[in-house]
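Lab notes, practical 5.
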Amino acid sequence: MVLRGVRAGSQSGVVTDEVRKIARYHRGLNIGILLMLLSLGLIVCVAVIGNNADRAAGEPPSPVVLPLIAGAALLYIAGVIGGLVDAIRLTHVMSESSIVLVAIAVILIMVFMPCGNILVLLVLNHRATTRLRDAGLRVGLLGAKVPKDA
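Output from the prediction step:
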């Protein structure tokens, strides 16, 4: 076990196997959320800029717009699937067994709603970040760096 600096009001400063798992799944969850946000921004930019430029000239949309939107949609689907897998794993590690099934059901339902999926993942992300900070780890954009020493 590694003792780390502890925040005021935190429960412990010990990096356990549970904290290591939370850190690993938290990183995957953050990558999934970033992929979803990046792809949504790309879809909006390509759709607005590509269609407006072509429509202003009175021409049909560029043949490049559709493949770019399709690629961004595939990126979004990859983010949703990756985020979903890590969200289920994270929920399993962070919760008691009775709550896991309810949480997984909510995640599965919300993952197919356009903004609901990101909101559910952000709430789970916040819970994991709080748990990692309580364990004394610094949490960055892509998650916490867990020391390798046992």
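Observations recorded by the TA: DSSP finds four helices and two strands in the chain. Strands lie at 139-140, 143-144.
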